[in-house]
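hey team, just a heads up i'm posting the complex here instead of the shared drive bc the drive is being weird again. everything in one block, sequence lines first with there labels, then the predicted structure for the whole assembly after. its two chains so it's a bit long, scroll down
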Amino acid sequence: MRNLFYTLLLLLCTSMSFAVPIVVSNQSPTLPPMLGAYITEYDVEAHLGILKDGGTCEDTFMLSYFITAGTSFVLLDGTSLYNGVCISQYIGLPTCDPFPLDHNGQRMGVTVLSPPLYTPLPWYLSPNGFYATTENSIDCHPNGEADIITPTSYEKLLIDTTVNPPVELLKISYIRFGNALATIDYE
Amino acid sequence: MRKIVLLSTALFGALIVISCEDNESSLQNETLERNNKSYTVQANSSPEFSSAEKDFHNKILALSGNRMGEDFHNMTDQQREDYAINYLKEDSYRILKENGYTTERLSKELKSDLEVLHKALYYYSLKTNLNP
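-- predicted structure starts here --
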């Protein structure tokens, strides 16, 4: 009887879990710098570390995207499409399974579009390296780059300090808003 | 006779080499194709947002960019969740109403503001994603 109770409880808890939609946005540059945005317009080639929500670092798989300046898209759950198939099937499951997603890190490259400054972006100002959060990935992929790292967020601000006054070029960030949504942002 | 055997062997060998080269080249083409596909743009560059979706979109961009005058990095997950749900609530309901949800249907099908937000994100994704 007790086993039946715990089994039912487990099933109930599983069915109550929420997917965490991930909104990916390239906001470069949708706002003028005086309103808190950055001067550089750029496209992003992003390699996003995605995993089942609640999974561990070893469960991470990579999704690659080319995200043009000013665009956004949403990864709702395992049924969202990647290269024409469900993400769940892309990682080897037989069915299009709506499992909740989480993000735990990324590598990226940027193509600067705003002439004539910093085209191309010099190596020392490029967002090289791996960005990761502490919750799911820090044990096997140390966060080499970000300025702010919390268990469920990170942020990197690229500043050119070789000029006077220093220029804030671009910002890369990830914030998870609990079970509501998560955002990956380039601006 | 030996010449014929040698010639046949040489021809057979040449056929194998050509066949392997073809395979290699087709494998290379497949790999290239796969690599190009992996950079497919998923985002719609000109989504036709309704007024509610446009407001929702702008608020999501503000949340993403941490431009709310709060520091999300210093908040707990629960605090961030409450903030996002509350901030996006009005536009989430507007989006659902635009998609045929009456007050009755809302209360029947969606149990919380969190579920309303997720449903609104679903409709939002139909506009932002090229392959919804």
